[in-house]
Design brief:
This protein has 165 residues and is an alpha/beta fold. It has one domain: HybD-like (Rossmann fold). 32% of the residues lie in helices and 22% in strands. It is globular, with a radius of gyration of 15 Å. It starts with a strand and ends with a helix. About 7% of the residues have low confidence.
Length: 165
């Protein structure tokens, strides 16, 4: 059985679905993924089959967190040529085939490599979803820009829909 340490520091058996917030909360909108996964974790009791993790700025540790899951959902800021605050849902295949993000997410290149590694190891999730949110401001700050802060409830609604079976 696989064990993980959740956002609240508790150890538990791995759940079939994992939501990972990517980003650096010390760089304004760059921290939106972490901000959202923290908020989602407050609803964990309503989603017993979902694990919510602050994955920070990514790295190979993500391999451990997504190993053999049914579904992995990533949340990150991404430059997509949209208005600040826009949210889009992608699959890794869409990112690769259409170059939708074209290395515009600060963690996209690493994330795609990590997902490829998990496939090569035979440990990839059955389904992977990436939510990109267009930043307004990436600069040293611990708060989100008004464009993103004002849409947090909308983002949560969108993400919660993704968690429905």
């Amino acid at each position: 059985m696989k064990w993980n340490v959740g956002i609240n520091g508790q150890t538990s058996a791995a759940k079939p679905v994992v939501v990972l917030g990517l980003g650096n909360p010390l760089m304004a909108d760059e921290g939106v993924g972490v901000c959202l996964v923290v908020r989602l974790s407050r609803l964990a009791a309503e989603h017993p089959d979902v694990e919510f993790l602050d994955a920070g700025t990514g790295g190979l540790a993500i391999l451990h967190h997504i190993r053999d899951r049914r579904k992995a959902i990533f949340i990150d800021c991404a430059y997509m040529g949209q208005e600040p605050g826009a949210i889009r849902r992608f699959t890794p295949e869409e990112v690769c085939s259409r170059k939708v993000l074209a290395h515009q997410s600060l963690h996209e290149a690493d994330l795609l490599r990590i997902l490829d590694m998990s496939r090569q190891l035979g440990q990839a999730p059955d389904e992977v979803v990436i939510f990109g949110i267009q930043p307004e401001r990436i600069a040293p700050a611990t708060d989100l820009s008004p464009s993103l802060e004002g849409r947090l409830d909308e983002y949560l609604t969108t993400l919660l829909k993704e968690l429905k079976p």
